[in-house]
Design goal:
The protein is of the alpha/beta class. It starts with 9 loop residues before the first helix and ends in a 12-residue tail after the last helix. The relative contact order is 0.17.
Length: about 400
């Protein structure tokens, strides 16, 4: 990939849309496709992809937002750790405004906690070097995409023998989450647009169970508009040809076997938890990463006493159902009213990869258009337009 403009050319997008429409006509049924990654969700709305697709295609937004799937209880644990007077708590900016049961990390900082935003876990190591009299805790979040950087940071801390540094590990794994979704009888999907960044680390082989056990196609996709459109076309092609395979559209980045160096670092530092609690999805077996006993001195959960309580979500918030793909953000009663990026009630609104944030920032017109079309169809029973929304 030399120039990003190559992946945003309108003429190629129009050509792909025409081919997608032809395949939809051959299928003659509604198609439900889940894009797993929150990065894909934001690209879809940023570039208006949903508006130019045939109406028979419904895009379902998956749980691939690491901040969104963080249960409220784990966030409360992080806030409790940060309020220790001897702790400097380091975190990515995405987690700062996520609401816990009583407060957020941002509010805790305003109340006196020493909470610092960093761009890399390695930044927290420098804080540890500069503050030998303090305990430095890094809030480790994310899927397999960010787990390698956490692992390498722990290995570096071990090499330097930094005894005042630890990680609060909340890394989660995408494969168990996908299995939990596929086992949900309320969610009927025809295929998946697979996560590009996670696949860059784990490769394509781990997704074979989707095609072999659940008979669903999956295409690993890049994040530019033409990447996503081509991935949808590849999925539809599989459906037309009655195939269920793992295909890799993002082959300029993703390799079949993944990133060996990154995987080795993860396996060296982390072990798989017996279970991990996900917002909306509940406890999923073998879906989280914990620090191995060999590196126990860097495990925050062993260094500090934390509440470790399960906390229910706000009754008005439908973030859990949105993460499961059961509801769309605009179907939540507090979306865009009581719940906004400035006053978030749920994680899906505050994270840069959250589906609610994407709808709020980019999707208002498409929501209105969808409602208008639905109302017209109920009255007139007119057929759906072949591609894109109607002009009125």
């Amino acid at each position: 990939m030399k120039y990003v403009d190559e992946f945003r050319e309108p003429e190629k997008a129009e050509a792909l849309c025409r081919e997608i429409a032809k395949l939809c006509h051959r299928l003659e049924k509604p198609i439900k496709i889940m894009e797993v990654c929150g990065g894909h969700t934001h690209s879809i709305f940023k570039y208006g992809i949903e508006e130019i697709l045939p109406q028979v295609i419904e895009l379902i937004h998956g749980p691939g937002c690491p901040v969104c799937v963080m249960p409220k209880g784990r966030l409360d644990d992080a806030i409790a750790i940060s309020q220790n007077h001897n702790v400097i708590f380091a975190t990515f900016g995405d987690a700062m405004r996520v609401p816990g049961s009583q407060t957020s990390l941002l509010q805790a900082r305003a109340q006196g906690a020493d909470i610092r935003m960093v761009y890399s876990p390695l930044d927290s190591l420098q804080i540890a070097r500069d503050n030998a009299d303090k305990e430095i805790v890094f809030f480790a979040l994310g899927f397999e995409t960010t787990a390698p950087s956490t692992a390498f940071t722990i290995l570096q801390a071990a090499a330097e023998k930094l005894h005042n540094f630890s990680m609060f590990s909340n890394h989660v794994l995408v494969i168990p989450a996908l299995k939990a979704l596929l086992d949900n009888p309320d969610l009927q999907l025809d295929g998946f647009v697979g996560p590009g960044h996670v696949s860059m680390v784990i490769g394509t082989d781990p997704y074979k169970f989707i095609s072999q056990q659940y008979n669903k196609p999956i295409v690993i996709s890049g994040f530019e508009p033409l990447d996503i459109l081509q991935s949808i076309w590849m999925l539809l092609q599989q459906l037309v040809e009655n195939r269920c395979e793992v295909e890799n559209q993002y082959n300029r980045i993703v390799q079949k076997t993944g990133n060996t160096v990154a995987l080795q670092a993860i396996n060296k530092v982390f072990a798989i938890r017996d279970s991990f609690d996900w917002r909306g999805l509940g406890d999923i077996p073998y879906s989280g990463l914990k620090i191995k006993p060999e590196y126990a001195q860097f495990d925050t959960e062993l260094k500090f006493t934390i509440p470790n309580l399960k906390v229910a979500d706000h009754k008005a918030c439908k973030c859990g159902e949105i993460l499961k793909g059961v509801l769309k953000p605009w179907e939540c009663k507090v979306f865009g009213t009581a719940c906004t990026p400035e006053t978030p009630i749920g994680t899906c609104m505050v994270s840069s990869e959250g589906a609610c944030a994407a709808y709020y920032k980019y999707g208002r017109l498409s929501i209105i258009a969808k409602k208008t079309i639905t109302q017209k169809l109920k009255i007139t029973q007119e057929p759906l337009p072949a591609c894109g929304f109607s002009s009125d």
